[in-house]
Amino acid sequence: MVPNxxxxxxIKSYIAGELSGIYPEHEINALTSIIxxxxxxxxxxxxxxxxxxxxLQKHVHEIGRICRELKKGRPLQYILGETSFYNCxxxxxxxxxxxxxxxxxxxxxxxxxxxxxxxxxxxIGTGSGCxxxxxxxxxxxxxxxxxxxxxEALAVAHDNAMLNEAKVKFIKSDILKPDIxxxxxxxxxxxxxxxxxxxxxxxxxxxxxxxxPHFALFVPDDSPxxxxxxxxxxxxxxxxxxxxxxxxxxEAMGKKMTDLLLTYKYTxxxxxxxxxxxxxxxxxxxxx
Length: 288
Hints:
Layout: H1 8-19, H2 25-40, H3 44-49, H4 57-71, H5 76-80, E1 82-85, E2 88-91, H6 101-113, E3 120-124, H7 130-138, E4 143-148, H8 151-163, E5 168-172, E6 186-191, E7 196-197, H9 206-211, E8 218-219, H10 226-238, E9 239-248, H11 254-263, E10 267-273, E11 279-285
Parallel strand pairs: 3-4, 3-6, 4-5, 6-9, 7-8
Antiparallel strand pairs: 1-2, 9-11, 10-11
Helix pairs in contact: 1-2, 1-4, 2-4, 6-7
């Protein structure tokens, strides 16, 4: 039962009490902020400035449901059915990964390095469409395409494109067996493919293992670069000479990824650390 909650201040106290001992305090504060903003459709500033604002009973019951799901370990983004990614509103389901801050760093790099760009961009393994949509919204005039093997994920991506009024074309394609004829010449390829080795499962949180799609996360230990090799092979056919490649990578694979791009004769190769100082992005230009 949810206690008699009347104000935003009461909601904050209730959420803190429900989640105490399950999540660390800083995470409870972050979850509380997102829950209030999403359920009440109000800003964080409003909840700070107006803590005595009254809350509708239907919102009280919804917050109680969210807390029950959180106590089971279900990720908040799946409970709410949406998240924010690079100032875009992105719907997520069990068929799509939850976008990560590291992937926002990938998008931010592409945008900052290509502000005046007006060519074509391909996002391989688009999932929810978050990368393709953010690039389309922030690089107006570009021709953005997203591909994925999952029809369910592509349906979510299509909805997200409409939600954000982004002009993105989506194509069903398996990067391990791509139909090259579906694609024309591409100027920039971006991808955040599966890169977590199966042996690394023991290092992961239960809410990821229990709820997020494993096909979008894991690769065999004996071929951890399987998708990157496939992307490089594919790029030989569609990426224009001098075209750019931006990839999110496993932090343990920086040296091997550099060697891989060198094998394919990429130039201007750069390994970039994320906000936590881990090798997370590699970029390069295709040979002329």
